[in-house]
Amino acid sequence: MTSISPTPADLRLYLQYATLALPWFMIVVDLYIMCISLIVFVYEEGVEVKGEEDMYI
């Protein structure tokens, strides 16, 4: 006899898994944002340096 609707015990289990997974999810998102901003920063620096070199020539 299986019920398709989730029981309170199931919901509690889902909540437990969610609270366990949340910190890792936040860390992954943090790293992703850091990588993107680093790439953008390096790219902008490279563009600025290239522009200055063109000016000197």
Brief sketch in words of this structure:
With 57 residues, the chain is mainly α.
Keywords:
mainly alpha; 0% strand; 57 residues; single chain
What would you say this structure looks like, in words?
This protein has 57 residues and is mainly alpha-helical. It has a domain at 21-57. It is 86% helix and 0% strand. It has one helix and no strands. It has one helix at 8-56. The termini are far apart. The mean pLDDT is 80.
Q: In percent terms, what proportion of residues is strand? A: under 5%
**Number of discrete helical segments:** 1
Helical content (DSSP H or I, runs of 4+):
over 70%
The chain-level structural class is mainly alpha
Taking the alpha carbons of the first and last residues, their distance comes to 81 Å
**What is the global morphology?**
rod-shaped
Spans of at least 5 consecutive residues with low confidence? none
Secondary-structure blueprint:
Elements: H1 8-56
